[in-house]
Structures are given as C-alpha cells and as structure tokens.
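re: that complex we talked abt at group meeting.

here r the seqs, copy pasted straight from the sheet so there may be weird spacing, ignore it
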Amino acid sequence: MAKPLEGIRVLDATVWFQGPVCAQYLADMGAEVIHVERPVTGDQARGVRSIAAVPVADWNQYFLAVNRNKKSIAVDLKKDEGRDLMHKLVEKSDVFLWNQGLESLAGLGLDYETLSAINPKLIYATNSGYGTAGTVSKPSFDMTVQALTGIMARLGEPGEPPIYLGLGAGDAYGGLMGALGILLALYHRDRTGRGQAIDASLYGAQLFLAAPTLQPYLATGDEIYGLQQSRSKTRNPLWNRYRAEDTWFALCAENSEDAWRALLACVASPSLGEDPRFESAVGRRENNEALVAELDALFATRTAGDWVGALEAAGFSAALIETYRGVAEDEHAWANTYFSQVQCDELGEEVAIRGVPVGLGRSPGSVETLGPELGQDTELLLFDVLGLDWDRIGELKELGVIP
Amino acid sequence: MSQALEGIVVVDLSREYWASLAAALLGDFGARVIRVEDLSTPARDPGRDGVYPVDAVDSEARLIHRNKESVALALASEAGCDLLGQLVSCADVLLTDASPENRKGWGIADEDLLARRPELVYAVGSLAGPLGPESSQPPLDELAAARSGVMYSLPEPGQPPVNAGAGQMYTSVMLALGIVTALHHRHETGEGQRVDASLLGGHMYASTLTLDAYMAMREDRLAEPKARFDAANPMSGISYPSQDGRWVTLTMPDTDRWWPAFSKIVGLAEDDERFDTHEKRCGDSRLAMMEALEGIFATRPAADWRADFDEQNLSADIIERYDYPAKDPNARDNRYVIELEDPELGKIKSLGFPIHMSETPAQLHRPAPAVGEDSEAVLKTLLGLTAEEVVDLRGKGAVGISDRVS
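got the structure back, here u go
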C-alpha cells in the first residue's frame, strides 16, 4: 500500500527532539526525510550518553528511535559551498524544517525570503522556542519552557514539588503541532500551488497542552485552576485514584445516585450505605475528605486487580494504574501498531520502539528502519538528487564541506 | 484561498473534550464544522471528575466548540438518524468518538459509509484503538493515562499517581493530523479512508522518550517514580526551591558549555575541585552539588535568580503559575493567548492558536454556539428542507433549536 506522503521530500535540519519528532511523523507516513547534520559531530542527540541527559541503552535509542525512517546528509552549512548545496536541495524539496534558533537563519542564508525565492512552492517550517512574532530569544529546552506555562505548578499534592510532565512531553507536542502545520500547508499547496512559512513553537504548543485548566483560568481569572489540588479534597470521590492492597487504580464514575448505589453493592459495605453524610450527591461532595478516607480504607483490603475486575463487572469505568511494564505488554498497544519491531544493526537483532500513532485504513504509515548513520546518504543524495558528478563530490570532500 | 481547509465540511459527532477539540482545530484553519449534539443522551458534565468547581462557568466550550455550527438531533429517533445520515452525505470528514455499537445503531457504521462514499474521511477517536480485545470502556482520558504508565511514573515516590492531562491533548492533535494527512491522500488519489487516533496512543506519544528508553532497557527503575535528587545531572531536568517558595528549574545538559557563567551566578568557584568537570558534576560529586545548589537557591527570591539567568542567557527559569501566560506580551503577540468578546461574559481571554501560518492563518470566525443554534439554518441551507419540514421535525422532537439570540 502506498503511504500518504510518498513523493514529498523534507529537509530536516533539526537537532535534539522537538524538530526531529516533527519530521518523524512525516517519515513514518512515507515522506523522504533527509536529516541534515553538521559533519563530525552531527545532531547533538547522537551524544546524549556522555552528557547524562537521558537514560541510554547499549544502543542509542534516543537518537535512533526518534530519527527512524530517515536519511542523513552531513554538510557544513557555514561554508559557502555548503550553503550552495542546501540551496540546490531546497530547489528540489517540498519542506524545509528548522529548530536551531531563528536568529542564525539569515546568516546561514536559510531565511524564508531566500529559500522561498529559490522555491516558491516550499513549505518553510520552524519549530521555534517562543514564536516568530515576539522578540524572545532565550534558550528553549522542554522543561524550562514548560515551567513558564504554569502547568507544572498545578500538578501534585499541595506542598509537594511541582511536577514535570515527563522527558520531552512538551517537545513532542511542539513536534506534533509542527507536523499538523506542515500538513495544513501541504494541503493548501495541493489546491493552490503556493508554499508558505509555518511555525509551531515549544511555548505555544505547551500553552495549548495546558488547555483543560489554562482555558478556564484565562476565561475566569480564578486562581484555583492553577493551584495544586489534593486527591482527598476532590468534589467527586467517585472519580478518583485509590490505593488498593498492592497498587493504585483509577475509578471514573459520576456522582449520581445510581453510581453510588452500584458502588455500595460492589464494595459490600453496609456501614457506608447507612452513613447519612454520604446519602446525597451534595453530601458526598461536602464530606469528601471523610468519604475518600472511608474508601481508602475499604479499597486497601483487596488487590487493585480484584477491584478493577469487580468494578468493571458492576459496569464501572476503572483501570489499573500500570507501570511502563504494563503498557509494554498492552495488547491494544501492539495490535494498533503503537509499538513496532525494527532491526537494530548495532545489536544485530530486532528492538521494540514506539510505533505509528495515527492509523490510516488505506494508506498506513510504518516503521522500516532505525535512524541513519551520520552522513550515510550524503554522496548518494548529491549524486541522485543534485546530479553532481564524482569529481565534484571529491572536491567538496577536500574542502571539508562534506565528510 | 485564505485558509488551508476552506471548503471542507466536517461533521463533528463527538462527546469527549479531546475529540471535540480536534474538530475545533479543523475549524480554526477554515473547515466548516457542523457539530451534531445528541438530544437523546444527557450532555457531558464538564465538572464530573470533581477536580474543579466548573459548574459555575462552562468555560471549556468556548475553546472546544469555537468556530462550529450546532445542530441538535435526537439520535434515538429514526428521523434524527435520517438527518444525521443526510448531513454526513454532505461532509468531507466525519469525526466521532462514539462506540462502534452506537455508530452502527445510528446508521453510520464506517464499513457501510465508506462503501457508499469511498471519498469520505471517517475519523474515529477511541480509548485504545480499533484493534485488539473487545472493550466496553468509554474513551476517558484517565483510563488511558492509567494504562499508559505515565500516571504512575510522574509523582515523587510515595505520592499518589498524577494525571497531567497531556495524553488527551496529544490525541486531539493526532486526530486532526490524521484527518489532514488523509485529505492530502484524497487529493492525490481521490480515495477517502478511515483515520484512527486513541487516548492510549496519545499518552504513549506524550511519553515517547521515557517509553523508548524503557523498551530499550526493560529496567524497572525507568518505570518507577523518581525523587528530585534522582536526577542524573544537577544542572539539568531538576528544580530547586528559591527563598520565596517559588521554584527555579534548570536544563543545561551539556554542563561544560554553561558552567563558567552558571558557577559565577550561583557563587561557586569555576575551578572548585569538586565540580570542575562534567564527569564530576554528573558523577561522584552529583549529590554534593545538588545539596550545594539546594542551599544556594534558597538564599534569594526567584525573580532575582531569573534576572541573573536572563543576563547570562542560561537555560534556566522560574516555575510560573497561569498568571504568567495570561499577562505575557509574547503569548499575546504570537496569538497563543487572545482576547475575545464573549456573548455572555463580555471581554475575556482565551487560548488562541498554537500554529502560525503566514498565508493561511488560523482565525476565530465565531464563538461556540448554543446547542442547536444552527439547526434550522443548516437543515434549510445544506439539506434543502423547507421551513414547514423543520417545524414538523421539531414538533416530533427529532430536532432541537436553541432560543439564544447571538
């Protein structure tokens, strides 16, 4: 089956994670994605092991999983000949993607005016830190930008440290927004023949990520949406996380008469059913701390698996709060290709990585290869795409433009 | 063509926050989104989870239903389902989070519709994807968060699991992204298709780096909650409380690059033998350095630290609350936060648009409609019904019409 983005060529001049994961979606869906890297060191993500930024296996899963399905070209963009090669590639590409700071683009001859003059159909995409309209140019890593949005400050129990949403949780959202912007621009180009510039910044994406609580804060100015909330003070004790004998589970039930009766039947606690404080929805809301304490004590008597089974059998929505070990074995995750097996040359065996997140019935994406070696496709791309001959390629090597 | 999705008609038959938001994103970029509200099912209560007292102001609808028209149909009635079928036959995209059973009952099963109209893009949001064991669980964010491993891993050790809510936000964008990808494919081939995104997939996407690390190593420590001082690098991925209780946070993974300027502002000697190499900072001296920084950051208020961070252009900042983006001129200049005139509340702030497009920018065409606000207009103009037919359908209870004057 043909993939939906076959025939689309992407120059992915990005580093670390936000930009690379944006281009990952395009590559999964069949675009020819060329990761443009500096010679010698390449994308900094190749060096994560030594800088203790993320846990790394005996193969560099950070770089190799994120940059799967891509080619790599190594070229020194600071040399005139390197810039010339990029301009020639731009002429023959559909998308240019950048996430290395907007201020350096003009000096490299990679600004929108220059590239769109070379190729008016180009989709010129950036994953900036703070947007293109303002003047903010400070460094933009995932966690420091997440800190600014306010989302970290509202998570966790009151008095506990703020909670980071997880390694790269905001970066990947910026990447996904970038991919949506590129697809929108591509569809516009399909119908008009015209390219344009798009930007999805890390800050803008992470503000949107906070929408369920940031939107009500913006609309009402009520500080409560930005403050830590205790699970023992929830206004609906029937929709909460509870710790069973062994581990935690989530229960999601509305605070209704029917749900309360069904819960009483399920937990088989006559004393709870006779307690006048909990008779009505209002009572359960107003006596929330007492009810959470009662339920904590009750649920602590059996395992989470037992409770989830009993609650589901009684028609409740409930789920075991799993570790990553649980999701690694989740049948739905495998059946729907949220995981993929792919050959790892370093290990000489297949490894499992996160797979294709969006399902398409007729033209699905897939994971074919792990990330490329630095510059592995340089010569072939110059030969095939730009029509350079071997003499010229040799000269470029001698000049240090390509490795 | 002033917007990327101009001319595309989307029927939005969604119930959950994240699925409705996916349709709003399409509307922001120019699609005509017709939201179908089912009068036969009680509306979703946005305060059902009890976390916030949202019953006072239903502010979420202002985001997730903006740029939509609203048609209210009783889908328990044959006439209601018939109208739904007629609406879908005018649509380029159907977006829904309804269960397979409901979709079949309403006469819009995907296999039937796609057989009849192969050019349709039929997008489904679900709890865990269309394939795999049967499940009757509804598509609730918490259920997927629980299954994904992320909820368990986020808090400090010993603290209750935390749902940050990121997974559903990922799923919204994934669903919109799949739809636009399918529209591009349709432009190339004439073929529509089924599109799927799920909350489980969204939560997995949100934890890509941790999940890939776990899959590569399969070590339990990677799945367990981490204490603050478990960080591998005292200068990266870590937060410290300042004097006024506000926290500062640092992300300077390649510490050699930042150490000269950083050591100066925290008052450590650049050549301090304990900390003078990256290997020491992330190795033998890791804990000693964290303890030293914990003491140092507690001596000055957060704003003072920020002034120094900014002056040295360090990758470090304050952990802010929501008042920061609400007042941030950069959020306003980039239209991430906008001001709008709300029919009920007057001038309010709202989230704007996370994607900038130079030629086809996102636009706010209209605020969220009242339920059924556009029933009459849509049935007349799109389906060609007469005024009498609309009155008749309304009398039978198949169609609802809002009284709100906007």
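couple things i noticed - Chain A touches chain B through 158 residues (CB under 8 Å). The longest strand of chain A covers residues 32-37.
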